[in-house]
Amino acid sequence: MKRAFVGKWKKPLLWTAGIAVAVVVLKLTLLAPPQVKGVRPAARDLVAEVYGNGTVEAKVMVAVAPKINGRIVALFADQGDTVRRGQLLARLDNREFSEQVRQSEAMVQRARATGNLEKANLEKARATLALAERNAQRYRSLAEKNLVSRQEAEQYETACLVAREEVARAVAAVEAACQETATGSAGKEVARSRLADTEIYAPQDGIIVSRDLEHGAVAASGQSIFTMADPATVWVKANVDESLLAGIGVGKPAQISLRSAQQVAIPGHVARLARQSDRVTEELEVDVAFDKPRKDFRIGEQADVYITAAAKRGVLALPSAAVVSRGAQRGVWVVVDGRLAFRPVEIGIEERNGFSEIRKGLAATDLVAVAPPEAMARFRDGKRVRVGS
Question: How far apart are CA 237 and CA 270, in angstroms?
Fold first, then answer.
């Protein structure tokens, strides 16, 4: 009889116990206050940074171009190569100019040979003139003494005049030969200069950014064969919002993040600020130079810059994830006796590493709730929460 009584009540008791356990589990899970992380404001050193986006550019880009027209027969560098000033980069077809040099050298040699011959003729003519002048003088004296006829004396005077004319002709011939030699020498120098111009050298130290013509192409005078840049002049031309320019000036430190190495912070500094803003975007161009010249730059590569505008030491700060907005009002959720309360705060410096300065509205003893954004979106004043570690 007793066994039958126990069996009769066993199932209801089990159902009751199961329901009680379910209620407890439901209360501890779905109906329990959400768990949040509690943080307190703490003193930190913060740095205010201004963001800008731009591209890698070179302040000075040099076009390496020939002075003369010619066909490219050899190239000794390619894009990406580091070159030194005076290094041979390209050669043009020089056959025509080599022939001009040969011809001008032959002309100079002929002119010099002619000049030497005319100088010898001049010396001979001067010697003949000297003899003719002595004879004319002697026969003039004899004619005055009636020792020779006047006709005979006049013959020697005539011979003297002919000798003078011969000297004048020889002098003119020597001068003409000298002029021809000078002209030939000048032509030779021009030909040599043109021959030298068929070899194109690097005008400065730098890196070849692009090779603009290839072997066999005809390069015109002044047409770029290579474009090169000095790594020391490479910087980021960034665009910065006008409203964020307070505290930005030449020399301010900055961090540069290249698109090809986004996780690497490259130290730099503000090198130049433009004096004219873009009227449409309301941005100003700020040139940020690398502290150490880079050889692995890419002209036109996208880059982000973070310019240090201000720095504060030992200011009250919270993780930026704790700061929320209610319309235009920014604030945090403080936990008081297990319940949430929205507290307006005044924010100062906001670092990109996740901390924000709290100027007003909190004390170091206040406990602030932090949770995932989707959970914080459901926070309400008075809502119960559990603070976890």
Answer: 10
